[in-house]
């Protein structure tokens, strides 16, 4: 589930602003995304968004992007782990599980996503704490790429501590296992605020859920 809100603005006083070949036309697009690392559609949406940003930046080199990924837990009260992925989807979608997975696979193919439903799954709670802990959106993006690819293409478990530490260190979010553990623990209260309050406030500001698969894209994806 993903909510996308973008603002197109010119702000030469913003700390992230940098001179361009034509500073008078420098613009910035800020995007807030609400996403669950447990959701395959969020992986697809991120890959499409990355592609759209790359294409837009090529045509509009004076535009700067700033993305902020916010947590949205599909199962906020669940802390389970070690659940086989196919068992999870069968419990969630019943007789329609195979059709759901087939649709996800078909949608991911043009994006070079090769979904693999092997391995276990579990709560995305700890992974979301590390998403919040990332100091820049570039680190957030690298961390999410590693999480999504590992969980959905390499049979890794999103609730596995060793997997999370590995991704955090590779993304530059933490230099050691101890730093990754401290970052995760430090954001416990902040995650509670995001899960319980801020998604509701976002909806009150006019961001609306169009379906379980797509928030803010109308099911069309990003182009």
UniProtKB/TrEMBL annotation:
<dbReference type="InterPro" id="IPR001853">
    <property type="entry name" value="DSBA-like_thioredoxin_dom"/>
</dbReference>
<protein>
    <recommendedName>
        <fullName>DSBA-like thioredoxin domain-containing protein</fullName>
    </recommendedName>
</protein>
<dbReference type="Pfam" id="PF01323">
    <property type="entry name" value="DSBA"/>
</dbReference>
<feature type="domain" description="DSBA-like thioredoxin">
    <location>
        <begin position="31"/>
        <end position="190"/>
    </location>
</feature>
<dbReference type="InterPro" id="IPR036249">
    <property type="entry name" value="Thioredoxin-like_sf"/>
</dbReference>
<dbReference type="GO" id="GO:0016491">
    <property type="term" value="F:oxidoreductase activity"/>
</dbReference>
């Amino acid at each position: 589930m993903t909510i996308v809100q973008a603002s197109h603005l010119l702000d030469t006083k913003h700390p992230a602003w940098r001179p361009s070949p034509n500073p008078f036309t420098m613009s910035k697009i800020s995007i807030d995304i609400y996403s669950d690392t447990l959701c395959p559609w969020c992986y697809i949406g991120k890959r499409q968004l990355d592609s759209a940003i790359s294409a837009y930046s090529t045509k509009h080199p004076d535009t700067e992007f700033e993305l902020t990924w916010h947590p949205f837990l599909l199962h906020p009260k669940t802390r389970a782990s070690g659940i086989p992925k196919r068992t999870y989807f069968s419990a969630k979608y019943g007789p329609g599980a195979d059709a759901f997975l087939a649709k996800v696979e078909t949608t991911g193919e043009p994006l070079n996503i090769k979904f693999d439903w092997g391995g276990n799954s579990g709560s995305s709670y700890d992974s979301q704490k590390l998403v919040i802990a990332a100091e820049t959106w570039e680190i957030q993006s690298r961390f999410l790429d590693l999480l999504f690819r590992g969980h959905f293409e390499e049979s890794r478990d999103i609730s596995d501590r060793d997997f999370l530490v590995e991704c955090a260190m590779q993304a530059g979010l933490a230099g050691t296992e101890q730093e990754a553990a401290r970052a995760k623990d430090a954001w416990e209260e902040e995650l509670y605020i995001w899960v319980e309050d801020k998604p509701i406030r976002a909806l009150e500001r006019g961001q609306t859920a169009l379906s379980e698969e797509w928030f803010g894209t109308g099911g069309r994806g990003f182009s």
